[in-house]
Design goal:
Layout lengths: L2 E5 L3 E3 L4 E8 L7 E7 L6 E6 L6 E3 L7 E6 L4 E6 L8 E9 L2 E5 L3 E6 L1
Parallel strand pairs: 2-11
Antiparallel strand pairs: 1-3, 3-8, 4-5, 4-9, 5-6, 7-8, 9-10, 9-11
Length: about 120
């Protein structure tokens, strides 16, 4: 079992930056792929970024490519999402997830990011 807790979300102005953190407990994140997803009001949850268990490969949604960076620190059992050049359309609840081979079995409760124009 993996428990995931996101933090770092808050209100920020457009053009600003935030770094989200996802702290895991219950088991090590080693050998688990990690991902960030988001859900805006009235919309379905969407993929934002993923990083493989080895950290060797990352993948980003087109909408965040070049602005967001996912990283992991397995020694601290934590995954990060650095978000730069934020836009109002980035406003959403951001969720951290863990799993293998594209299937995410464990999810956090989410952290709210609000970008004002």
């Amino acid at each position: 079992q993996v428990q995931l807790v996101e933090s770092g979300g808050r209100l920020v102005q457009a053009g600003g930056s935030l770094r989200l953190s996802c702290a895991a407990s219950g088991r090590t994140l080693v050998l688990l792929d990690m991902g960030w997803f988001r859900q805006a009001p009235g919309k379905e949850r969407e993929f934002v970024a993923t990083i493989t268990w080895s950290g060797g490969r990352t993948n980003y949604a087109d909408s965040v490519q070049g602005r967001f960076t996912i990283s992991r620190d397995d020694a601290k059992n934590t995954v990060f999402l650095q978000m730069n050049s934020l836009k109002p359309e980035d406003t959403a609840v951001y969720y951290c997830a863990a799993g293998r081979s594209g299937t995410y079995k464990w999810w956090g409760q989410g952290t709210q990011v609000t970008v004002s124009s």
